[in-house]
Amino acid sequence: MSPTIKSTLKYGFFGIATYLVFLVATAPAGLAYGYWKTLFGGGAVPVTFDDVRGSVWSGQATKATINGQQLSALTWDANFLTLLLGIVEMNFEFKVADGYGKGTMGYSIFGGAYLNDVEAWLPLSEVENIINVAAFKPGGALDVKMSTVKLDNNTVVSARGDVAWHGAELTLLKKLALGDLDVAFEPHEGGVKGVLSDQGGPLSAEGVLQLGPDKSYEFEGAFGIRGNNPDLQNTLRSMGRLDRDGKVKVSLKGSLEQFGW
Predict the structure, then answer these.
(1) What span, in angstroms and rounded, lies between the C-alpha atoms of 155 and 44?
(2) What confidence score (pLDDT) does residue 209 get?
(3) Chain-wide mean pLDDT for the chain?
(4) Computed over its alpha carbons, how large is the radius of gyration of the chain?
(5) CA distance 231 to 254
(6) Total structural domains in the chain?
(7) What helix, strand, coil percent values describe the chain, rounded to 5?
(8) How far apart are the first and last CA of the chain?
(9) In terms of CB atoms within 10 Å, which end of the chain has fewer, N or C?
(10) Cβ-count burial of 73 within 10 angstroms (0-12 exposed, 13-18 middle, 19+ buried)?
(11) Residue closest to 54 by CA, chosen among 32, 34, 38
């Protein structure tokens, strides 16, 4: 085969592939979603959308439900250039009651996914399906600012950023106000390290959380109280023995799967 014919075929195939990508990207989002539901068995898919508009490339849904968690005003905008690298990437925004989220998410055909520049304000009363802490009912809101999160097989393998828990509280038999807490995340030894600190509220908190690529976690920390707070003090005593500084040391190991992650 002559070089001229080879060159013609090469550019011809590239042109056809580009056109097919264009057709998929500009296809009505509602049509694509209907086909997707049929392909994967409808109700068996843990993601549903209502009132889908726009295209696969750039669209919106009035409401989305992901693993039982409801989001509203979901919008997305795909990045065409990353497709040339085998990466499906899109910017997204959504709302929950009194909260919001936005960022960039991507998935590589070679494996792995990521989130970049994620910002969110999530009242915990509105995202109960995301967080499962057994009998404790959390209150307050999460202020999320993550510059990057990398995932492999739905497991976080690297992360950098900050998650603040504003107005933190837990309710078991009584509501316990904890103040504001913060966890700063960074990559560490093939996994993720999170450094816990408090912002001067009723609960004194410090510790280090280690997350492994196998969904294992280890936490070493210490908790105390500020001021006169009998309910919080009794809770700490139930967790362990108070040292001379009035703090209880906590050491935990386990799997994130027990929290539904």
Answers:
(1) 22
(2) 96
(3) 79
(4) 23
(5) 27
(6) 1
(7) 25, 55, 25
(8) 55
(9) N
(10) middle
(11) 32
Q: How far is CA 144 from CA 130, 131, 164, in A?
A: 14, 14, 7
CB distance 211 to 241 below 8 Å: no
List the one residue out of 233, 218, 202, 216 whose CA is nearest residue 140. 202
* pLDDT tens digits along 200-214: 899 999 999 999 988
Judge whether 196 and 178 are in contact, CB under 8 Å.
Answer: no
Q: Which residues of the chain have pLDDT under 70?
A: 1-47, 56, 67, 128-135, 259-261
- Closest C-alpha among 225, 183, 229 to residue 207: 183
CB 78 within 8 A of CB 94: no
Q: Show the tokens assigned to 213.
A: 């690529």
pLDDT attached to residue 221: 95
Q: Is 49 within a domain?
A: no
In a domain, 239, yes or no: yes
Residue 229, domain extent: 112-259
Residue with tokens 């280890």: 218
Q: Position 210: which residue type?
A: Q
Domain presence at residue 142: yes
Q: Given its phi and psi angles, is residue 141 left (phi above 0), alpha (psi -120 to 50 degrees) or beta?
A: beta
Q: Are 192 and 252 in contact (CB under 8 A)?
A: no
Q: What are phi and psi of 253, to 5 degrees?
A: -140, 150
**Strands (DSSP E) along 4-133, which ranges?**
47-54, 58-66, 69-78, 87-96, 99-108, 113-123
Q: What is the pLDDT of residue 34?
A: 53
Confirm whether 146 is domain-assigned: yes
Q: How far apart are CA 94 and CA 162, in angstroms?
A: 20
Distance of alpha carbon 132 from alpha carbon 254, whole angstroms: 15
Instruction: Give the per-residue pLDDT at 116.
Output: 96
